[in-house]
Amino acid sequence: MLPMHRGIRTLTATFQESEVLLTRLKGDMQVVTTYLEGAKQSMEERRGLEEDVRWKAGAKEGLDQGMDQGLDLFEAQKALKMQPQVLDELAQLRSRLQETEQRAAELAEAANATNRRAWLTIGIPTVPRKTGADYLTLTLESLLEELPLDSSDPLYGRVRVLVMNNRPGNHNVFYQVRQRIDEGSAEDAFVAKARVYVAMVDNPGTLPDPAPHLPDPNDLDNPTNRPGRQVRQQTCDLITLLEMATPQSFYYLFMEDDFRVCPYSLPILHYIVRKLNAVPATRNWLSVRLSYGMNGILLPTLYLPSLTNYLRMHTARLPPDLLYTEWFAGKREETWDVVRGRQQYVYHKNLLDHIGAQSSFTVRAERLPFPRCFASMANVWSIQAQERFQAAACPGSDLSPCPPGDGGETWVRIPIQWPDNFGDDARFHPTSEPAATLLL
């Protein structure tokens, strides 16, 4: 959007310059008019002189008037000679102003279209890895593969990918990706799509750790899950991202910078939202879990302020993913006005594939393998039971808790069978074994 802003500033300067030139030309025309009127008046006055004035006085007065008249006529003749040039310049200026106004209207229309509230914002916080590993490019490439360049597509321009750098000035991968988008060739599909969908911003750093005095816990022995300095800052950074994203769209999807988007994820998201909104009993849904961790959570931005406030209130007590679980479950009274009567749903298959082997955290305990693309969300070990897909209770559904079998449009009762087998492509094969688990 920055080039559009520069274009608007240029148009503003052009309008100001045009107004100055037009004012000058109007002044020149006024001089011409004044000279002509003065000459005409002088000539009429001289015709009205009385014949009985004494010859000498009359001659002297006539001489004086003749001199004055000669000067007026000289100025008038000079102004008349200038008039065609002035009129030509004025015509050119008017034409230029019309072209400028037309261009301004086109840019304003384009700006309004760009600034319209999007359907979905995908928020991706990013930090550098010690080894300089570039997960961000892989994440964005998989995401942009799902988004159209065809302006007639319903999703074109309706999805925003907001990437926030949480280490301003110290994240080479982030700046390299941003430079590629800003300066790369439009023949590069990544660049062309990123210019439509991606905004890359530095964290303004307006929300510091609320409890810097607290000592860090032992991450290998922390039964209360008390967050250390890094995790608290992660929560603060997430709050900053959410506050920036809230007004931009109707829905928000949590993502991380080291998760690849599985094929068909964006159409599936659209399908899920349409399905929940089409049935009166599920229309008041709170969120949908599509993956694990603080990742793959879809919710209406209408509820983001409540979640953001909850994260802010409890930053020093729990990590953000556990705070989210408390929030949607309504475990504390401060959430009831939003979450009571609303339900989190779980999609039956995992739609985001973890690719990061280098964690942003200093210490991580060894973990079990994470599910790959399209693995069942019924058996994800890293989320609580209430956030897993209830396969036994909903055998014929792709969402749990099971939406009612009646009510709403007919199509919502028949789950769509999206392709989930991509042959030899190990990135997305649901039955492939994940790579050996590293310290994450």
From TrEMBL:
<feature type="region of interest" description="Disordered">
    <location>
        <begin position="207"/>
        <end position="229"/>
    </location>
</feature>
<keyword id="KW-0175">Coiled coil</keyword>
<feature type="coiled-coil region">
    <location>
        <begin position="83"/>
        <end position="117"/>
    </location>
</feature>
<dbReference type="InterPro" id="IPR006759">
    <property type="entry name" value="Glyco_transf_54"/>
</dbReference>
<protein>
    <recommendedName>
        <fullName>Hexosyltransferase</fullName>
    </recommendedName>
</protein>
